[in-house]
Amino acid sequence: MDSSPRKCWAQGCAAEEEAAHRCKGCKQAVYCGRSCQLAHWNEGGHKIECQTLGDPLHPSSVIASGAHDLPTLCQALDRALLEAARDPLQSDDFLALGNSIADDVDAQVEDAR
User: Are 49 and 60 members of one domain?
Assistant: First the structure.
């Protein structure tokens, strides 16, 4: 388990203390307090991203988890490319995630050589 201090996910939060409140949906987003959690849910976009972050193979989840095993990275890359093709409005975001994951895959291949 990661014991490093976690910063509040709410945009513009200047709290210095460790974020202690965790989202019960995705279990990844953390907040310094209830007001930041509500603000991020209502105006910060967490309502939309919460479902995807709870999915362990979603490209955002793979990047956030720091996964480095090749099978997981390849599955997440496939998923990013499929989502980019499926949702033209978010294709740039998914392609950026895919590029980031592809860089990790390339690094894994290089390390294996």
Answer: no
Tell me how many domains the chain contains: 2
pLDDT > 80? residue 5: no
Using the predicted structure, report yes or no on whether residue 54 has a pLDDT greater than 60. yes
Residues 70 and 33 in one domain: no
Determine the Cα–Cα distance for residues 73 and 106; give it in Å rounded to an integer.
10
Considering the entire predicted model, what is its pTM?
0.47
Does residue 21 sit in helix, strand or coil? strand
- Judgement on whether residues 83 and 45 belong to the same structural domain of the protein: no
Same domain, yes or no, for 37 and 81? no
Cβ-contact 75, 81 below 8 angstroms: no
Amino acid in the structure at residue 58: H
Q: Domain limits at 36?
A: 1-54
SS3 call for 19: coil
CA 97 to CA 81: how far, in whole Å? 9
CA angle 75, 96, 111 (to 5 degrees): 55
